[in-house]
Amino acid sequence: MRHTAKSLAPTDGIRDYMAAQEKKSLLRFLTCGSVDDGKSTLIGRLLSDTKQIFEDQLAALERDSRKHGTTGDDIDFALLVDGLEAEREQGITIDVAYRFFATPKRKFIVADTPGHEQYTRNMATGASTADLAIVLIDARQGVLRQTRRHSIIASLLGIRHIVLAVNKIDLVDFDKAAFDRITEDYLEFSRSLGFQTIVPIPMSARYGDNVTGRSQKMEWYAGPTLIEHLETVSVEDAAAELPFRFPVQYVNRPNLDFRGFAGTIASGSVAQGDEIVVAKSGKSSRVKRIVAQGGDLKQAVAGQAITLVLDDEVEVSRGNMLVSPAARPQVADQFAANIVWFDEHALLPGRSYILRTETDQTSATVTDLKYRINVNDFAHEAAKSLEMNEVGICNLSTRAPIAFDPFAENRDTGAFILIDRISNATVGAGMILHSLRRAENIHWQSLDVGKRVRADMKNQRPAVFWFTGLSGSGKSTIANLFEKKLFATGRHTYILDGDNVRHGLNRDLGFTDADRVENIRRVAEVARLMADAGLVVIVSFISPFSAERRMARELMADGEFIEVFVDTPFEECARRDPKGLYARALNGEIKNFTGVDSPYEAPENPEIHLETLGKSAEEMVEALEHWLNERDIAEDQYDNGGGI
Q: Core-most of 393, 434, 469, 488, by most CB within 10 Å?
């Protein structure tokens, strides 16, 4: 049969329907709370009652309910969103599940987030894009620790609207007193969290009471049903009213005649002819073209993906921002931030992480953990580290300045994540509070005498020989003999020894993991200054953590850092026990002793690997000299590329 163009065209009814759908507002929300409070069941109920489930899906759900369900003969709506096999087997949510549904009045995207503490990072992921949070509470349990933690994270991530869903009200015989008690407890707890609205609703997600339809079993409740509130709550997107922010994601240059900057507008709007400023450099230009998928635009607003072509050939690269000249973001390398820590390994001040914003990336260090927030009473507690799922206020320092707005003013340009340099895992999420005044007062001073001049005068190449190994491995002995050899040939040297430095520079530090990180950070900075003075620096420290050794390496110029692994087995070090420390540690008299109850992370690819078992210190120094001679090290390193 032949079809005409007219027969293929959509009918007026379809056009009207599609137009109506496009005009509907969109609400993004998440469900959160403690374990087994009914988050997945609630979302399943919403999907079912809003007719988002096809008949074949319903049949499959009935089969899965018999196999994996926890509701007896009833349909287990949680299985609609608990998609992972591990979730179905355990009856818990692990991953973040996103679902879409719509009513005649509004469209919705909901994130079902896990309640278990070890998956708090997934809850933060769901909250990062949400406008509203449904905090579920089991009517039998009341406000729990995880309820508080999720509420604090929701507040930190900019959520200002809360639905307090007191679920499983049927299991307390629809008792108004239980509902009132939980509501009072939560309102008292959340008083200082800055939420604009908190709407308590008693409900039974399993049976649908007060979810999409009003319950006949709670005549004492006169408030809205959940769906009524979700359809009417005002969470207008204010991004278009904020100052223009355009993080550059890609420099598009297909040929010599076109150079554009691609990205998505984070906030504000831009039009042809508008003046813009490059955030980091302060250079200004004007918008020549706004290129979009369907052609050039006169104007673009927040949320649109575009390519901007400018009048001038200003220098802009990925990680920078094009911004409004009348309201520029802050640009700094030191700032304060809220941090939610996700990793099982604690956040340690002084350790180097990778900080990543929407488009930018740089090395960062937590310079000061100001305090930890107690999730029960909001007390500010002194702490040297943040453990998994803890929240703290920190000062950070970045290797290079970043452009940002305070998170309270702009969620897109004020957020970042921290990434572990070794595992590449996301270990924390941060919300920037403000830049530090010290960052504005401190600038690099230009000096006429530099490293090259200092090294030329000494006729040597600056270098840092970083000796690492267990206590008793022979590091200090080998390092001392090595310096004598170098000194005898006229080299300008200095040894930084672990014990000696703790008598002065690091005398205030103990032996916790946090103190060990700070110990190495300080020594690495001193070694960098000494290398800048043209010296050959020999560092002899246990330096047990690979992250800090990498940090030290990155402080130095290429080729300056030479890692020397003094590899002596634990049993041999304990047998030698030159300071009597192993015996005391093994008897429990010394805590946090490396190799006993504190880990040593051996180097994987050191420049020099000294296996000491059965060999003398003199033989180890000969191996060092052989390593140097193999590389044809010459004295005048700047002219011929030689070494020390």
A: 469
